[in-house]
Amino acid sequence: MPKQIHLAAHFPGVNNTTVWSDPEAGSHIEFASFVKLAQTAERAKFDFFFLAEGLRLREQGGKIYDLDVVGRPDTFTVLAALAAVTTHLGLAGTINSTFNEPYEVARQFASLDHLSAGRAAWNVVTSWDAFTGENFRRGGFLAEKDRYSRATQFLDTAKELFASWPADAVAASPSEGVFLRDASAGTFAHRDDHFDIAGRFNVPRSPQGRPVILQAGDSDAGREFAAATADAIFSRHGTLAEGQAFYADVKGRLAKYGRERDELLVLPAATFVLGDTEDEAQERARIVRRQQVSGATAIKFLEQLWNRDLSAYDPDGPLPEIDPDVSDDHIARGRASVRMHRDPIAVANEWRARAEAEKLSIRELIIEVTGRQSFIGTPSSVAASVNELVQADASDGFILVPHVTPGGLDEFADRVVPLLQERGVFRTEYAGPTLRDHLGLKAPR
Amino acid sequence: MTHLAVALDGAGWHPAAWRLPSARPSDLFTAAYWADLVREAERGKLDFVTIEDGLGPRSPEGRTDRVEGRLDAVLIAARVAPLTSRIGLVPTATVTHTEPFHISKAIATLDYVSTGRAGWRVQVSARPEEAAHFGRRTLPALDEVGVKELFDEAADYVEVVRRLWDSWEDDAEIRDAATGRFIDRDKLHYIDFDGKYFSVKGPSITPRPPQGQPLVTALAHADIPYAFAAGSADLVHVTPADADDAKRIVAKVDSLPHVFADLVVFLEDTEQAARDAKARLDELDGSAYTSDSVIFTGTPAQLADLLLSWEQAGITGFRLRPGRLPADLEAITRGLVPELQARGAFRRDYEATTLRGLLGLPRPANRYRQEAPVA
């Protein structure tokens, strides 16, 4: 049997990949939009639904960033509600280990796992910035260097809590008059650099034992964290060569933790544009890119590298001759991408050279250097590409990011999934009730 | 017209209720159990259900003959929201160890997934074992000063939650193709709360919920919590001993539009049967069940008489705590409710689509809204 593909549906995010100006674009906050996308994913037998999270609205130049979708629901609450309108689909939420506490998060995930009968997943992310911290009681309390140690200890603590009830602790036997078989069920004590807590966890062991753990960090520390603790890794390396290198790297780290290669799935994020012909798909992709990168958005992207107010520049004109400001105080806040440019002047020079050689305006350049779609083509060529990447060990599947809410997954579900099923590389029915079943993961140790 | 709510908790409020043949002790941690209960309450046209919660074990002493464990109440409410359409959903959430930013968006999201039926019962935790689950603070001594401090903190917390709900104006999302702007950022507001216990910047990441301000409730038994409820909540749950006591309590919280009395109820066809039912449970548990509220044992008609007499004292509604689930819930929806309807004292059908609407409360104006200057 060929290697099986895993697919997840990412609710369109609060960034410029999401095209809110499309005539088909619906609400990003009404529950009906979440229901529609989740039910489409379940109809297509996807492994899980995925929600990202950001705990402070993004700002640029000291003002709330207004060009992209803004606003999102509370992760746990919307996932619990989605459990009522789906039956098999996994429900994955991104929850921060810096601005939460293990006891509360563990009981929320254990509750979600009970209420969804075994479909919960936790994408563990870390942040440290004082900017986000301003929304929380503790403020920006964590040093950047400590964020993975807190995340590791947070997750270790949560795992202790998930395991603190023996599987058979609840007897609920009226005839014996025994509700609890074990009076000490839930007892825990945990002390490390970040946590000093003890007592009794108050949610019985959940159907999956604990939620499926996802991890999204790409740094060396992030990869090590994933290899040590995660069930799946949400990566950004979707091309063949990059994907294979990343795949080999993280799978290679598993052995030292006594883990098998199939105990950690690699699931890159991917976008797609379909067409009846290759030409039509390319043309649609070009239109989508122009929707994603308006003139105003292009200037804002350029400002993130330049770290300067560039509002006076014409997006249809040439790149600025002035160099980026390399001081620390960064113009854009609340974005994962802000620290991507380690050497802004070198990148700026590269962009200017490319714009000159290819005769590109600011907007055209930004369209080229940011977020080209992962899969562009006919349903059959996209199905072939998806399968090829998985069979070549560039990934174990993909977390698909539609660019239109909530109908953006329909075409993939209707036209690409059946072709993957025909090839025998994607399920036609769910094999079991839990997300762990869909992902082929063993019960947690 | 009276208002009715039920307080859902485990297998009912009597600690031995789970042992009855009508109970479903094996289902307490399943979605189906909670969905069935809330749908039953909705069939009875009740205003809302509350769902109890806590950040620690129910019985710290470790008894094995009582229900232990509970699911997160906000998530239970969210799980049943799509399966119901009119009844209000009021989960309990603790303020003492949690983040106002998280609770604000959780209740706002409950309001979205229920299209305007969310509430929140604010709970202060003074239990040292719950504090030890967080390891972040030592609770004050529970003298008057310490209690005041916990409730002052709760008041700040509710203020932050309420400001965050208002931090987006209703028409902040503009999707203006001409300028490429998704929102009008002038209609998003930093809340800039800076108090004695914490500071929160805002705005929320979640737009203003459908009700504008979801219903905030609190249970109160003494002057400090009465003052907290009067200043922070829309509805207070109180535990009068009788009609005179109700009158006395109502005077302390008369700034609130709603004062709901709590009663534990055991309902049977005869008064004797109800008393026997409770006595049998007391025997199973090995002790007589007591409560902070009145424990009513009797028939639905007798309960109707009592409720209507308390209404004369200024009580606007009741939160009934079923001694046994689902039995006493069904006795409420199928016995008490028809009794009250026959007396013209309770709705025959839902007259509003939001929880605030059911309680006759308007959708509040946004505190940050700047009226356009008059030309």
TrEMBL record, chain A:
GO terms for molecular function: monooxygenase activity. Residues 20-392 form the Luciferase-like domain. It comes from the Bacteria. The keyword Flavoprotein applies. Keywords: Flavoprotein, FMN, Monooxygenase, Oxidoreductase. Gene3D superfamilies: Luciferase-like domain (3.20.20.30). CDD domains: Nitrilotriacetate_monoxgenase. Belongs to the NtaA/SnaA/DszA monooxygenase family. This is Nitrilotriacetate monooxygenase component A.
From TrEMBL, chain B:
The keyword Flavoprotein applies. Pfam families: Bac_luciferase. Keywords: Flavoprotein, FMN, Monooxygenase, Oxidoreductase. Residues 23-277 form the Luciferase-like domain. It comes from the Bacteria. The keyword Flavoprotein applies. Belongs to the NtaA/SnaA/DszA monooxygenase family. This is FMNH2-utilizing oxygenase.
